[in-house]
Every structure is written in structure tokens, then in C-alpha cells.
Design goal:
The chain is of the alpha/beta class. It is about 45% helix and about 15% strand. The strands form three sheets. The chain has a three-stranded parallel β-sheet with strand order 1-2-6, sandwiched between helices. The protein starts with a strand and ends in an 8-residue tail after the last helix.
């Protein structure tokens, strides 16, 4: 039955600039495509969820320390409007794919975006108002952000070298975000969490 297997992946439309990053990125993508084809050849009818958005949780995980310290969000993303979603809502999409595959129609690959689109400067403003302080966004090089993430990985095992390479490369290569859609509402029949709700509820908590 369609939905026996849900493959939840981060967005796959950014291409890094440098040769080393491009090779690493395409190797990662090739492995995921191979795994997808293997699942389909096994007889399972799959829905591949490729989340075309940034996760709220990474604001706390990757930037919490500098938000509370320097009052800045530093990363390799240009200051363009990006799609955002809560990790909890990405989980709800996976559950919907398993329980209600018919809501996805005949599509085998879907790209849910969440329902909010903000630049990092706008995100800094929202978080700053919540914390009662001034915050800003600063775009830095791939190498600078990757180095910072590797430093953070020494104190938080949720961050590792592969993640540092992946997200720093994605950030630098982003030129135009995926058009926003309402796949989340259509398949879960719920309202997606907003960034403001994530902050007010304590879902995101910036604490020393």
C-alpha cells in the first residue's frame, strides 16, 4: 500500500559553488536517490517527503549562543525570504504519509514548505522582540560558518561534520527559495506552527 514507507529528506535543490562542496553534495544526493530507487524496486509504493524549508529548531541549536551573546545570527544564507517549518510539523507530515497516503494523490515525491516565509533579518527581528533586545543577521562565508559549527559540535553532539558541511553549503548556494505551498494543511488538516507561536509557547527557548 502506498505510504508503507516515508522517506523524510531536507530540501535538495541547492547546489554548492566550490568543486569540493559540489562533489560532496552530489555524492550525498546520489546515495539518497539510490536508496529511493531501491525501495521502489522492492515493491513498496513510496512517498518521499522532501522538506523545502528551514527548521525553526536550528535557530536555537545553531544560533542560540550567539543570539544571547553577540546579538547576531551568523550563517552563510543570503538575506532572502526563506520558507520555515517546525520539526514537529515535519513529523506530522510523515505521519500523514503513513496513515493517509491517499491525501498525497499519485505523487511519489512532495516538497512541503511550511506556511511562513521570512528572511533571516526578519527572523532576527521576531526573536529580538520576543527577547526584548536588538538582533541582526550577518551573512558569512561557507568556511567561516562551517568552522563555527564544528566548534559547536564539540559541546553539542547533535551537530556533526556532515551537518556542518551540508547546511553551510546549502546556505551559500541559495538563490531562490522553493515557492510556498499549502501541502501541510491539505494532508494533515491542521494549522502549521508559526515562529511566533514557537517562541511564545516555549517550543523554542533561548536560555543561557
Amino acid at each position: 500500500m502506498k505510504g508503507d514507507k516515508a522517506d523524510l529528506l531536507l530540501s535538495e535543490f541547492a547546489v554548492p559553488h566550490s568543486t569540493e562542496q559540489r562533489i560532496w553534495r552530489w555524492r550525498t544526493l546520489a546515495r539518497r536517490i539510490k536508496n529511493s530507487h531501491m525501495l521502489e524496486r522492492s515493491g513498496l509504493s513510496c512517498i518521499h517527503l522532501r522538506i523545502a524549508a528551514l527548521f525553526f529548531e536550528n535557530l536555537e541549536l545553531l544560533h542560540g549562543e550567539e543570539i544571547l551573546g553577540d546579538g547576531v545570527i551568523r550563517n552563510s544564507f543570503p538575506d532572502l525570504p526563506m520558507n520555515w517549518i517546525a520539526g514537529e510539523d515535519a513529523g506530522k507530515l510523515a505521519i500523514a504519509a503513513l496513515r493517509f497516503p491517499e491525501r498525497f494523490g499519485d505523487r511519489t515525491a512532495v516538497y512541503p514548505t511550511g506556511t511562513e516565509k521570512f528572511s533571516h533579518s526578519e527572523v532576527a527581528g521576531i526573536i529580538g522582540r520576543h527577547l526584548g533586545r536588538s538582533l541582526r543577521h550577518e551573512t558569512v562565508s561557507v568556511e567561516a560558518w562551517q568552522k563555527r559549527l564544528i566548534e559547536l559540535s564539540q559541546q553539542d553532539k547533535r551537530i556533526n561534520l556532515d551537518m556542518a558541511r551540508h547546511i553551510s553549503a546549502v546556505g551559500a548556494s541559495m538563490r531562490k527559495p522553493f515557492p510556498i505551498n499549502d501541502i501541510f494543511g491539505a494532508v494533515t488538516q491542521e494549522q502549521a506552527m508559526t515562529l511566533d507561536e514557537a517562541l511564545r509557547s516555549g517550543y523554542l527557548a533561548f536560555k543561557r
